[in-house]
């Protein structure tokens, strides 16, 4: 599979969601973000041996959990018609300016 731009990812997600009766209500999508973030935290805790999983629990991939979280975030951005690429550029400029000398030793 080819690599995608953020815009292409937003379009792919939208195309899929449109075949599934549209987006969930915003608070349901936010709950999905929270759920996926919790699953990511669980995997990181297990990987870092902070909280070992039970032998009956399925081992998941951190990359997969990150992608699930991204999917949920993209759903919210699409629902509100937010161009993540444009917003991300602004965020990077903010961090670069604000934190320019912040972490230098």
From TrEMBL:
List each copy of the NTP pyrophosphohydrolase MazG-like domain by range. 27-103
Q: Which InterPro entries match?
A: MazG-like_dom (IPR004518), MazG-related_YpjD (IPR012359), YpjD/YvdC (IPR047046)
Which GO MF terms does the UniProt record name? hydrolase activity
Cited Pfam families:
MazG
Where, if anywhere, are coiled coils annotated? none
Q: Which domain of life is it from?
A: Archaea
State the name under which the record lists this protein: MazG nucleotide pyrophosphohydrolase domain-containing protein
Organism expressing this protein natively: Promethearchaeum syntrophicum
